[in-house]
Amino acid sequence: MKARHEATQKFRVALIIGTFAPAFEYLAFLREGIQNRYYELEDGFFESYALGGLLVLLAVFPPLWYFGIPVIERAAIVFHVLLGGQVPREKWLESTFSSLWTLPYASLMGVLTWLVYSVFLLGGWPGDVIFGIIANLIGAWCYGTIFWNWHILRRQYHRATAVPRAERVQAEPQRCTNVDD
In the chain, where are the structural domains located? Predict the structure, then answer.
């Protein structure tokens, strides 16, 4: 399926873009730890977090690379069963995959948002709320596009199978008869 292949490419580009912010945070953590000589402390805190952060980055990336699109596909199939109506599964999945065009752009916007938040140290009130809203709007753009396209597709198939109003057979009104007559 061509749409699935293109969605896989877009997902992987988004994943690569999306790793810049955590990699930046990890490198900033290492830089600060080395500058302040945290590694000389005997508690092993710095080394544990440095190793743990690297392991998390390395452990999360490959499963997302290989299983991200299959997970999205399975979720789309579940939604098709629940909401798909008369839409064929292939059309539903094609709509899902074609809706993923937003991923690289959303990933870039998310990374830029994260970096602005981190570099300018905008944590706390109101920065957390403002950047949380921005992050949720970026996510809503992605899944909102999918849901909107599903809605349009379902309406198209509902209209295609609906019987036009003029062709509907209407029952003749029943006449009331008086039994006593």
Answer: 2-160
